[in-house]
Amino acid sequence: MENYKKIIEDIYAEVKNIEDIGTVANYIPELAFVDASNFGIHITNTNNASFGVGNFNKKFSIQSISKLLSLTLAYKLEGEKLWDRVDVEPSGNPFNSFLQLETDLGKPRNPFINSGAIVVCDVLLSHLKNPKEDFLEFCREISNNATLNYSKKVTQSEKDSGFRNNAICNFIKSFGNINNDVAPVIDFYFHICSLEMSCKELSEIFMFLANDEFSTSKGNKILSMSQAKRINAIMLTCGFYDESGEFAFRVGLPGKSGVGGGIIAIHPDKYCIAVWSPKLNEQSNSYKGMLFLEKFTTRTTSSIF
Ligand code: DON
Q: Does the Cβ of 257 fall within 6 Å of ligand 1?
């Protein structure tokens, strides 16, 4: 970690001063209230050393990064049958696209686009007694962090503007790939998206994808080696929607973004790093977040390639 600290500080100072050509997401009105100048980084490594700069302790809306947590829980509960419901192929399309759903007969391309995450929510709803409470409890347990919570304001804002997600869910149900009623599936999906975490919390909660044992800091095993390999592989190929190739090309790590401007990236056996900068590029990924991570893996020569 010691050799990373100076590099992180240097890149932080450099990227902070670069003009941000992105824009804050406003299609969910509540997200537009964020202070766009926030910029934070936090890294946790497999020796439990950690380091942060900027606004790394401030909670923000993690949005689609939570799709990684819902996928993890659904994979644990449903096992390999999960892949009958959702595929593992890059979509090459925006995260909220309908295009392929028609020809793919309602089977989403992957669990990280909205359609795939909605099917994952349906799977969870069929397994969990109290889905919202149980999912939150799962997140609190694996992070050993009782402060994790949904944002009521963001959930409501997503509901008020959620015409497209409702339509996606109805469309998939018309093909028979949603088993529960649309309303509770979508309500659960909006809650999951509204989870709030800081960069520090993000880099800690996802250590189970980076360490050898695929376990929490307390030693609880979350996934088998094969399951962790598969989730990391889907992150590498699908974590950034129609910019997944570009992220692999520039950063070279499995990762996942959210429209709140957060990105997490995993170096298996080494570390988990989280970056937050709210302004997004045209593919809805954090502009400065990607820039920071590109410089970070280049200067530390720590990509997986
Ligand atoms: O459903 C939505 O559109 C948002 N709650 C989540 C989208 C998202 O974060 C995609 N990310 N880049």
A: yes
Question: 97-106, pLDDT tens digit by residue?
Answer: 999 999 999 9
Whether residue 271 is contained in a domain is answered as: yes
**Per-residue pLDDT tens digits for 177-198:** 999 999 999 999 999 999 999 9
- 281 Cβ closer than 6 Å to some ligand 1 atom: no
52 lies in a domain?
Answer: yes
Judge whether 281 and 298 are in contact, CB under 8 Å: no
**Closest residue to atom 11 of ligand 1, CA basis:** 258
- Domain count of the fold of the chain: 1
Atom of ligand 1 nearest to the CA of 257: 12
Average pLDDT of the residues in 246-272:
97
User: Does ligand 1 have an atom closer than 6 angstroms to the CB of 247?
Assistant: no
Q: What residue owns the CA closest to ligand 1's atom 2?
A: 114
Q: Give tens-digit pLDDT for 141-166.
A: 999 999 999 999 999 999 999 999 99
Identify whether the C-beta of residue 169 lies closer than 8 Å to the C-beta of residue 113.
no
User: Would you state the pLDDT for residue 126?
Assistant: 98
Closest residue to atom 1 of ligand 1, CA basis: 114
CATH classification of the domain holding 133: 3.40.710.10
pLDDT tens for 271-301 read 999 999 999 999 999 999 999 999 999 999 9
Residue 165 CA, closest ligand 1 atom number: 1
Q: 284 in ligand 1 pocket by Cβ < 6 Å?
A: yes
User: How buried is residue 174: exposed, middle or buried, by Cβ count under 10 Å (0-12/13-18/19+)?
Assistant: exposed
C-beta of 204 in contact with ligand 1 (< 6 A): no
Residue span of the structural domain in which 272 resides: 2-300
> pTM of the prediction?
0.96
- 3-state percent breakdown (helix, strand, coil) of the chain, nearest 5: 50, 15, 35
> 223, 208 in Cβ contact below 8 A?
yes
